[in-house]
Write a structure and sequence with these properties.
single chain, alpha+beta, Alpha-Beta Plaits, Arc Repressor Mutant, subunit A, five-stranded mixed beta sheet, 13 helices, about 50% helix
Length: about 375
């Protein structure tokens, strides 16, 4: 509807008479004269039933707009002279070509989504890619941009303007919060690395859409078929980053470190490890001040002097707090092995907390829908 109105606004700039587009019911969807919009034209049914290329009714000329399997549109122009017929032909070809281009873009996007979700047979991917004129043996980089659901439409518009070459690059939403960006990888001095590209995307979203985003970055895919693996990698990068590195906005699959290892461990093994490191209630006994001290101590590579300087406390105060940690947990964080063990246990705790929260969210969603989903027998 909005696209039709846009076409009519542009047509008004070069046409010296009124034109518009009707649906099959005769409702004026768009017109160069905005006052005609949402009015009815009784000639619609006669035009649809006619075999004539151009139909004249009253003081208007009409022509059907072909939209393949979709419902037809009817274009009209005031007047029955030769100039009106020229305008009709022009508008028909303009609108039809625009819809063909849009339909092709939607078909390509649907195909790419199916490839990423592995809904296409591997052997069919190169054949369908050829039919849709999508390069198959081209390396690509995939990014998943996660934003607040209420901002996704604005962010999508910004990203489409940032990457306008829709024949080579793909930008589309996977759901209400996640937008996929799939770019062909170019070589050369001016080519951006994956990290530089992700930073550019993030800065553009912050500036243009006035919102924050998180970006998952995959490993490069050598062919179109391999982008399914890249999609899984970028998805994992977002999840693992959300669990273990909440302060970062860009999460690269090849930089997940220990987070990737812990994320793939079974829950029972994580719980067993945690029970071996901390006695029951030991970690919970650490107050916020002590946990902040531990965080700074780790950030400064167990350097006591630098940690006390950043916390604005005396060195003896830091020693007292670390002694307190050892008394509660049995781990001396000044000892490298104990520090590693504590850090691992802390990450495992985060992972288990994430799993519990994720499970509660899923249960909540199911319970909210349960009333509507119970069949009436």
């Amino acid at each position: 509807m909005e696209e039709l109105k846009k076409y009519m606004q542009e047509a008004a700039s070069f046409m010296d008479r009124t034109a518009g587009v009707l649906n099959e019911e005769g409702l004026v969807l768009a017109s160069t004269d905005s006052q005609l919009e949402n009015t009815e034209d009784s000639a619609a049914q006669a035009v649809l039933a006619s075999d004539e290329h151009i139909v004249f009714s009253g003081d208007r000329a009409y022509i059907k707009i072909d939209r393949a399997a979709r419902k037809s549109y009817i274009c009209f122009v005031d007047g029955t002279d030769e100039q009106s017929q020229v305008y009709l032909e022009l508008l028909k070809r303009w609108i039809e070509s625009s819809y063909v281009e849009k339909d092709n873009a939607e078909e390509r996007e649907t195909f790419i989504k199916n490839v990423l979700l592995e809904n296409e047979l591997p052997g069919d991917v190169p054949l369908k890619a050829r039919d849709l004129k999508i390069a198959y043996p081209v390396p690509r980089q995939l990014y998943i941009v996660r934003v607040n659901a209420g901002k996704s439409a604005d962010v999508l518009t910004v990203l489409e303007h940032l990457f306008p070459d829709w024949e080579r690059n793909f930008v589309f939403p996977m759901d209400e919060e996640n937008i996929v960006i799939m770019l062909e990888i170019h070589s050369g001095d001016k080519a951006l690395s994956a990290s530089e590209e992700a930073s550019l995307i993030l800065d553009t979203i912050n500036t243009e859409a006035k919102t924050h985003a998180y970006i998952g970055v995959s490993m490069p895919a050598e062919t179109l078929k391999d982008t399914a693996k890249s999609y899984r990698e970028a998805s994992m990068a977002l999840i693992v980053g959300q669990i273990f590195d909440e302060e970062s906005s860009i999460m690269r699959y090849d930089k997940l470190g220990l987070g990737r290892l812990i994320y793939q461990l079974p829950k029972t093994l994580c719980e067993l490890f945690l029970s071996e490191v901390f006695e029951e209630g030991a970690y919970e006994a650490l107050d916020e001040e002590t946990l902040l001290t531990i965080q700074k101590f780790f950030e400064n590579n167990l350097n006591g002097s630098e940690t006390s300087r950043q916390l604005f406390v005396h060195r003896n105060t830091l020693v007292y707090r670390l002694d307190k940690v050892e008394k509660i947990t049995g781990l001396d964080l000044r000892n490298f092995d104990d520090a590693v063990l504590f850090k691992l246990a802390q990450m495992v705790r985060k992972y288990l907390e994430y799993q519990d929260t994720d499970k509660k969210t899923a249960v909540s969603v199911r319970s909210d829908k349960s009333d509507d989903s119970i069949p009436v027998i």
